[in-house]
Amino acid sequence: MSKAPSKPRILPPSGSYPARVSRIIYLGTVSGEYKGVPNASPKVSITWELPTKTHVFKEGEEAKPFVVSKMFSHSMGKKSSLRPVIEGMLGISFQDEEAYAYDLDEALGQTCLIGIAHKDTPEGKKVEIKSFSQLPEGMECPPAVNPPKILCYEKFDKEFFMTLPDWMKSEMAKTPEYIKLFGGETVSDSEIPF
């Protein structure tokens, strides 16, 4: 039986918008490859809510804001991709000691101006986040619509975990942090223990 084609994802229009960090998800140590060499590094996913750009995603429901997400290695080193994002949002340049001491949880609720564009991929069009900066003087970000959430292994929220996309739950279930917390071996989507 062939799988029904999935509906194309509705993307926010390209442009610059006020945004707010609405989710920070610490995935754990994810195995992967970098330039053909196997490696493993701690990963974090950050989601921004775009409260001025809304859409009716389900018939009969109210319009909700678009959200955009990006995955990072959880590192604030000089060459990391996360550090310039945080610096852009805060409008500062960290000294190395400040960057290493920065608690990423503090970014939850942080507002910024985010620039997005669309890019073509083999799977179809996707959002590409191009820039992060402080909100210009006089521009405000409307109040949050989605409740801000953090998911980490120190205070694991099973209910929140179950709302994540299947691919993310699967990635997390393979991490040593997840396996240490719940015991046993790596699990598949259908075997996640709750």
Structural account:
The protein is an alpha+beta fold and 194 residues long. Strands 1, 2, 3, 4, 5 and 6 form a six-stranded mixed β-sheet that branches. The chain is built from five helices and six strands. The model is unreliable at 1-5 and 185-189 (pLDDT under 50). It has two domains: 15-152, no CATH class; 157-194, no CATH class.
Integer count of domains: 2
Number of helices: 5
Q: Categorize the overall geometry.
A: globular
What integer value in Å does the Rg equal? Answer: 18 Å
- Would you count the extended β strands for me? 6
The H-and-E topology, N to C, reads as EEEHHEEEHHH
Strand proportion, as a percent range, falls in 35-45%
Keyword list:
194 residues, alpha+beta, 6 strands, single chain, globular, 2 domains, disordered N terminus
In short:
With 194 residues, the protein is of the alpha+beta class. Helices cover 18% and strands 38% of the residues. Strands 1, 2, 3, 4, 5 and 6 form a six-stranded mixed beta sheet that branches.
How do the strands and helices of this protein lay out in sequence?
Elements: E1 15-34, E2 37-55, E3 64-73, H1 82-90, H2 96-101, E4 111-121, E5 124-133, E6 149-151, H3 158-162, H4 166-173, H5 176-182
Parallel strand pairs: 1-6
Antiparallel strand pairs: 1-2, 1-4, 2-3, 4-5
